[in-house]
Specification:
The structure is a single chain. A hairpin with an 8-residue loop joins strand 2 and strand 3. The protein contains three helices and seven strands, in the order E-E-E-E-H-E-E-E-H-H. The chain has one domain: Nucleoside Triphosphate Pyrophosphohydrolase, CATH 3.90.79.10. Strands 1, 2, 3, 4, 5, 6 and 7 form a seven-stranded mixed beta sheet that branches. It is an alpha+beta fold and 153 residues long. It is globular.
C-alpha cells in the first residue's frame, strides 16, 4: 500500500570522517565532488540513504563507492540537521567516524567523487556544505581526543 503525506519529508544522508596515521600526526580522508552543488570542492565521503538500507549500511557503502576504502569500523558521531545545510533541499545527515592506524591507505575517487585524498587534519582545504563545522566539532570532541592520544577507537 502506498502512503502519501501532505507534508514534505527530508532526505537522509551519511557522511564519514575517516582518520589515518599515528596519534599526533593524523590525516583525514576527503573526496573532491564531481557534481553540483559544490562541484570541484572537497567534502567528507558520503551520500543519500537508499530506501532498502540502514543508515550504517549507507555510510559503509558510500565510503567504499567514493574512495575504494573498506573494512573500516565506523561509529556514529553526531546528527546535523540545520535547515539550510544542503542547497538541494532539506537534508539531515548522520556523521560516522573511523580510524585506521595505517598511514594513509590507498584511495581512489569513484562514482560521484572525482578524486579522493588524505589531508593533514591541521591543513584542510575549503570544504563543501557544512563539512568544516562537522570536522571542527569532531576535532574538539572526546572521540577525537581518544584517537589522537592513543590511536584507539
Amino acid at each position: 500500500m502506498d502512503y502519501t503525506y501532505k507534508y514534505p519529508r527530508p532526505a537522509v544522508t551519511a557522511d564519514c570522517l575517516v582518520l589515518a596515521g599515528k596519534p599526533g600526526k593524523l590525516s583525514l580522508l576527503l573526496i573532491q565532488r564531481k557534481n553540483r552543488p559544490f562541484e570541484g570542492m572537497w567534502a567528507l565521503p558520503g551520500g543519500f540513504m537508499d530506501m532498502d538500507e540502514k543508515i550504517e549500511e549507507t555510510a559503509v557503502r558510500e565510503l567504499q563507492e567514493e574512495t575504494g576504502l573498506s573494512g573500516i569500523k565506523l561509529s556514529q558521531f553526531r546528527v546535523y540537521s540545520e535547515i539550510d545545510r544542503d542547497p538541494r533541499g532539506r537534508t539531515v545527515t548522520l556523521v560516522f567516524y573511523g580510524y585506521t592506524g595505517e598511514k594513509n591507505p590507498q584511495v581512489e575517487g569513484s562514482t560521484d567523487a572525482g578524486n579522493a585524498r588524505w589531508f593533514d587534519v591541521e591543513d584542510l582545504p575549503p570544504l563543501a556544505f557544512d563539512h568544516s563545522i562537522i570536522i571542527g566539532d569532531f576535532l574538539r570532541s572526546p572521540q577525537f581526543s581518544e584517537i589522537f592520544k592513543s590511536g584507539n577507537m
